[in-house]
Every structure is written in structure tokens, then in C-alpha cells.
Design a protein that fits this description.
The chain has helices at residues 4-7, 10-21, 76-82, 102-113, 123-128, 130-138, 158-175, 193-201, 220-228, 250-268, 276-280; strands at 89-95, 118-121, 142-145, 183-184, 205-206, 233-238, 272-273. The chain is built from eleven helices and seven strands. The protein has a single domain, classed as TIM Barrel (Alpha-Beta Barrel). The chain is of the alpha/beta class and 285 residues long. α8 (193-201) links the parallel β4 and β5. The strands form two sheets. Strands 1, 2, 3, 6 and 7 form a five-stranded parallel beta sheet that branches. The protein has a two-stranded parallel ribbon with strand order 4-5. 39% of the residues lie in helices and 9% in strands. It binds zinc ion (ZN). Residues 95-96, 146, 150, 187 line the site of zinc ion (ZN). The site of zinc ion (ZN) has 5 residues, from loops.
């Protein structure tokens, strides 16, 4: 497998560093995707088991993004202040992806209904499926970070926490250097003050949720019920799994059926599907 260092020619490195120095972060709307072709980044990794993957991408020094100064994290309390049961907004958030089949089909469903969502991706999955990262952004959804490898951050040393956050962000920025990544959702919803501080140092605020009833055991009816009654809710769904099975899992099939059956009904009832930053962006300037 060719190493990443080998893959990067000197010119690419120079361009990359130049973009880092000259980056500009728009306040609200993400810029048009300028995705980099990183398909060959990981060489001969087995796409099913992902054996052979190594985080041998460039380590980008701080600051990856300007640090968040005076930002407000999207915790249960903040969400309660900013959303009520009468709020028409529904925030669909997808964790753990992207994954080749489920994410692509979810994007198809969202596109068919003209609704936007927020994708909390893992750095290692982003490296495997850069075309899906590109598609998420190009179709107007928000790209957010869920760490590099889905480790439980509170069990790690400060240095390891920093690596999970910095490496995940570095992979997204390597592909989309000018895209502001505003939100970080810690795996398992598990975080401490060090994780908060590291997220802020990397230009992100913590983004939690107020509805997490959808997991791999959820039935189609439960998914439909959650979305149809989801106004005023940040809903957590999952479009990824590790290691990656070759075909759609039963849970993913239920999720796809549930989404296809519920989004249109919710919209007909007045629901507005939004990205996190379109509603909460001011909290994390
Ligand atoms: Zn997760």
C-alpha cells in the first residue's frame, strides 16, 4: 500500500499548506464543495473489513480553524432554551457515517423531499468515501465531526483526545479546506471539560440532541413516529457502522423505509427540516 506521504507530491503539499494559511471561513453558509480526490489516499484497503487502514494523513498543526471564543455548546439546556414543542423545526442528524450504501440512499431520500440534515461523520469513514463527503456538502447539508475513530473520549488521555478530534478534522479539511466545521458530537454522547476545550480550540462547539430514540433496534414504525412527531427535536439517526458490512444492514433498511415514509408526512404537517447551523449557528460564531 503506498504511504500517504508518497502519495502527496511536493506540489500538492505546498498547495495544501497555502490553502491552510489563506483560508477564509464564511459566517453561515458552507461554500460550494471543492472536494479533493482522495480515493487513492488509502491504497489497497479492504472496503469491507477496512483492514490496512492507517491514519497516515498529514497532521495539521493548530489552529485548524480559528478557536471558538465565547461560543455556546449545544447541550440539553441550550436546546431547551432555543427550541420548544411548538417549534416547527426538525433537525435530522446522522452519526457514524458516511457509509457507501446507507448514506447514498439517505441522501437520495432527503433530495427527493428537498430537506436538509446534518451529518456527523467519522474521519476514518470520510477517508474511505470522500465522494459521499463531497455529495453531503454539495447538496446543501451540513458536515460536522464525530471524531476520527468513534472512541469513547472520556476514557482517553488528553493527547489521545486531541488526536481523535484533530485527526478527524484534518481529514475533512484535507478534502474541503475552506469548509467551516462548526459542530463536534462526541461518540456515545460522552465528554468532559477537556473534550469541550479541545473542540473549542479546533473551532467547534459541542452539539448534543434532545431525541435519541433511533438506534439499530428501532422498528420502522418507531422511526416514522419519531420523525412525524419530531418538531422541536434534534433527532439522532445512524448511517454508519464499523467495521463496514458489505451490504445494507437490516437496521439501515428499516431506517431508509422509516425516513421515506415519514418526511413527507411531517412536511405536510408544517415541519421544517433544517441543518443545525441554520438555526443554532449564532451560538458558535
Ligand atoms: Zn456515534
Amino acid at each position: 500500500m503506498p504511504s500517504f506521504k508518497k502519495f502527496l507530491s511536493g506540489g500538492v503539499i505546498a498547495a495544501f499548506l497555502g490553502l491552510l494559511v489563506n483560508r477564509v471561513y464564511p459566517a453561515a453558509e458552507p461554500p460550494v464543495a471543492r472536494a479533493r480526490p482522495v480515493s487513492s489516499l488509502l491504497g489497497s484497503v479492504d472496503p469491507v473489513t477496512l483492514t490496512g487502514i492507517t491514519p497516515s494523513f498529514p497532521r495539521i498543526p493548530l489552529p485548524l480553524q480559528p478557536p471558538v471564543l465565547g461560543g455556546v455548546d449545544l447541550t440539553q439546556d441550550t436546546i431547551r432554551d432555543w427550541l420548544s414543542d411548538r417549534s416547527p423545526e426538525i433537525f435530522l442528524t446522522f452519526d457514524d457515517g458516511p457509509s457507501p450504501k446507507a448514506t447514498a440512499l439517505i441522501l437520495d431520500i432527503l433530495q427527493a423531499h428537498d430537506v436538509k440534515a446534518t451529518f456527523f461523520v467519522l474521519g476514518r469513514n470520510a477517508a474511505m468515501w470522500p465522494e459521499l463527503i463531497e455529495r453531503i456538502v454539495a447538496e446543501g447539508h451540513e458536515l460536522a465531526l464525530h471524531s476520527y475513530s468513534h472512541a469513547n473520549l472520556t476514557t482517553l488521555s488528553w493527547e489521545q483526545k486531541k488526536q481523535e478530534i484533530a485527526d478527524g478534522l484534518a481529514l475533512l479539511h484535507w478534502q474541503l479546506p475552506n469548509l467551516r466545521i462548526r459542530w463536534f458530537r462526541p461518540p456515545y454522547g460522552s465528554y468532559d471539560q477537556a473534550v469541550v476545550d479541545l473542540a473549542h480550540a479546533h473551532g467547534m462547539c459541542i452539539a448534543m440532541f434532545n431525541e435519541i430514540s433511533i438506534n439499530s433496534d428501532s422498528a420502522v414504525a418507531e422511526i416514522v413516529q419519531t420523525v412525524v412527531t419530531g418538531q422541536g427535536r434534534i433527532i439522532v439517526l445512524h448511517d454508519g457502522q464499523w467495521p463496514r458490512p458489505a451490504s445494507l444492514t437490516a437496521a439501515e433498511q428499516r431506517l431508509l423505509h422509516g425516513l421515506a415514509a415519514s418526511i413527507g408526512v411531517a412536511k405536510a404537517q408544517g415541519a421544517e427540516f433544517k441543518t443545525l447551523s441554520s438555526h443554532f449557528g449564532n451560538l458558535c460564531p
